Fold this protein.
Amino acid sequence: MDFLESLLVGFVGIVVINNFVFTKFLGICPYLGVSGRLDMAFGMGCAVTFVTTLAGGLTWLIDTLFLVPFHLEVTRYVCYILVIAGAVQLVEMYLKKFFPPLYKSFGIFLPLITTNCVILGLCLFLNLWQVDNIVLALVLSFGAGIGFTVAICIMAGIREAMELADIPTCLAGAPIALITAGLLTLAFMGFSGMIR
Amino acid sequence: MSNLKLFFRESWLLLVSSVLFGGLLALTDAAWRPRIQQNEINKFSNLARTLLPAAETFEHLADPIQIPDDKGRPMLVDVRRGLDASGACAGWAFVCEGSGFADKIKLVVCVDAKFEILTGFQVLASNETPGFGDKITIQNGFYQAQYKGAPAERLTLHKAGDSKLIDSEIIAITGATVTSQAVVDILNAYVTPIKEQLRQKGFLQ
Amino acid sequence: MSKENTMTVGQAFIGGVWTEIPVLRLMLGLCPTLAVTTSVKAGLTMGLCVIFVLICSNFVVSSMRHLLKPHLRIMIFTLTIAVFVTIADMYLKAFQPVMSEKLGPYIPLIIVNCIIICRAEACAAQNGLLVSVVDGFAMGLGFTIVLCFLASIREVLATGCITFSPTLVLTILKPVEAGGWFTPWASMLMPIGAFVTLGLMLAAVNQIAGKKS
């Protein structure tokens, strides 16, 4: 029961309290790039969630079974980035074969997932938080992906509505998106202190 | 066979650069690793030394200290004895942690040689709200100063009062009651059990 | 690789520090920009690390540009960047432990900073050694300037002063606690401060450069 509770706390914590986009500033580039349309944002979020779960689990295994026992921590970053690149390639091939329309709509963004900070950031934070079992690692990875999806979907909804608004020309596009994101972080700060 | 040839023709650069980069990493690692490890060791003693200026070195106890955690399960605590230049006990230092407002708070706490008076705490890691909760990290700020000389017993938190008065009543930081309470709770959870354990194991009279 | 020497040294330098200044014009590398700019010192350290990694990776990529195979290209770029980031991270851990602690995972996150891979692809893979190195330096410098500028706005508004070390503190606005008039804006240290300041900065640059679109 304790174990389940810790999983639940970890999951809720990483989705709303320590949301990667709003508190750790990870994944801002795609957050601003793709969040123009809700359906694309949701697709991107799903792809990221899938890759983070895969990469989080794999890097955790590599770290505990291979890098730490053999004292190869110095190659940690290289290993992580290679695992992530491999996982992204896998997702790309899978989508191309089974969901061609989805593949087409992602266009350039799929290879860009490799350089999405959420994924590498998550792997690094799993290491920093000293997560000591694979189930928790998987739950946290999944939660980080869900947190990213939530953030990017909220943003896309707001930006769809904002297309109709009259924004000063110099603020149009990225600047207003950043300011909106700032206000969202303020809203998400209300969640901190929820779990103690 | 031709497959293998193709493979090498396409990827020889990748293989060669991997080997070269591997060598480069190994070299830097060999050169800097001792320093990095030394830094990690120094980090604890540097923080602890600001609280126990008399202590020269910090040694681990031969018999590890175990106290019950919040669910009653045994938990190991890293308690170290500070030794002064002559080798006498100058005080005790230990690392403790608990949940704060946003994330875990990790503290280094120091107590005098008789384990009766706190000499203060320093923050090892925290992620509290900037401008409010993170005031606990200000070295010698009014919040930290209240612990310097406070009795090593049960502490209580109060919203108002005289923060200059050093006793077991800690005055909260305005706007950061949860964080202030968290630090008090962490100390309460650790100080008394550790004191009992030390006494049982004969480290204290 | 037929497009040899498409840029001159001068173009590369100007490109890096103004016409294509990363963050503001290319919208690349936003994550570290927002995360580490709570203090000028952190921003400066981050910027120097990025300069180091950019110069080294551009140098390596440029020197092997004739040997690159198209489909393994990105792989080699990533590997190169990851290695130099590891070296930078170890240097900080060994010689600047406090800073390393503060920047935490944002140093390894330089690996996925789009600026670096973008420069390897767009510049170093097509240009000679000198131009590539200058481009790396200029891009890194542009990034550092933006980081420091943003960080100085945030740090001054949040604390009233710029702290380089415990002994070297530059007071610009005297806070109330020290007997001045300025009430520090704690929110500048929070995520909101980062987002809004960067948003306004982008707007200002758009205004100055007269966005043509």
